[in-house]
Amino acid sequence: MPSARPSLSSRVAGFFALDDDWQRPSPPIGAGDLALAACFALFGILSLEFVRSVTDLEVGGQPVWVQWLAVLSSAALLIWRRTHPLLIGLLAALHMFVVGVTMPGVMGQFSLQVLYFSAIYSAVAWAASRRTAILVAGGVSVFMLLWIAWQLALGSGIQEIVDGTRDIESQGAFDPIFAGVALTFVINIVYFGGAIVIGQVAWRGARQRARLEEQAETIAAQADSLQRRAVVDERLRIARELHDVVGHHVSVIGVQAAAARRVLDRRPDEAASALAHIETSSRDAVTQMRSLLGTLREIEDEAEAGARPAGAMGTQGRSPDRRPEPTLSDLADLVAERDTGSLRTAYHLIESREGAHAEIAAPIGLSLYRIVQEALANISRHSTASAADVFTRVVTEGAGSPYAEVEVLDNGRPRAGTSGSGLGQLGMRERAASHHGIVDIGPRPTGGYRVRVRIPLGEIDIAGV
User: Fold this and answer.
1) Single pTM value for the model
2) Considering only CA atoms, which of 94, 98, 125, 118 is closest in space to residue 44?
3) What domains appear along the chain, each with residue ranges and CATH number?
4) What does the DSSP assignment read for 377-420?
5) Is 88 within 8 Å of 119 (Cβ atoms)?
6) pLDDT surpasses 70 at 242
7) Cα 448 to chain centroid, rounded
């Protein structure tokens, strides 16, 4: 069913935002307020003197200095129109009433009418409470209309209309007295109502600008938070990389050092070969750590660049050399490094077509490489295994969904007194989860341990598709 149209009262309440708690901040009194009041005072005095020079104003016998005082006091109200809007609105109404009773000619001057309009407008535009603002402005308007009605009914208002139209032949459709009374009320309703409506429009505009500024600040804060989160995520990624690199090479060095120690006296050639492996592995570890630390410096420079003016240079002024990150094509070398006297390793590549493993997207290849690297390091540190097989399976064609999978199998059991922190396996799971992969880590029913990770491949993950 179509929703019922809101009633007139609800629409009026919505326009005046009677239930809105937002308060428009009032600026302190400044030089602009003083200058505005001075300009209106000068304009009012000049206007008064111009009128007094061409006509006889009805001033109730008040001296000139009192007339000037009435103009100057009304202009002074503008100074506090934003800091005390409701008080100024009430004082302006009182000023209009007193001057209108004692010096109607002065109260009717254009300059004072503009000042009274501004005071009522400010009461609505700057008041903290919408309900109080509408109550005060509406009360002032009703009081002024009642005062006009009193002047017409009991004062000389109607007589002035009669005297003004006595020698004029009416050409309109209405009686002159009725037309004069109606026109007086219409002008005043538009005058007071216009001040209230325009003041409310100004308040709504200020509220909208405030909301836009809040939204802009929220968006900026969220963007800053996302930037910091991206930096933190990249640091965590680098931390995992460092953990894998250091763990892998340190375990290789340990295995090779143990092998060299056992054969140092009996087979010096094998000991020399093991020491050469240690040298190569240590250099490779240092190179990879330098690359990762260079990446970390780049992240810091990029984060600082966001806070620097455009065109500003970082502290380094250049990007450090970085080795290409390993991929699935490097797994064979990784497994070969682990093939020692105490641990025999073998690598098996199974793919749906030749070269498919080389077409896997670099992020997926790196993740699978690091998972195998961590699995082999864990075998050296925490297992009694004497043999390990690494399988890489890449299926990009045929029935079923394409995937890339690595599986590390060993024939050992946990070594006593070498329980790890669990961060290595957590890193494997996080790497797999970042690509929506499936992880299977744990002992095998037939003995040994298995680490298997399968990552589904989309079209963008296969370079040849």
Assistant:
1) 0.55
2) 118
3) 8-220 (no CATH), 326-465 (3.30.565.10)
4) HHHHHHB--SEEEEEEEEE-SSSS--EEEEEEEES--BPTT---
5) yes
6) no
7) 52
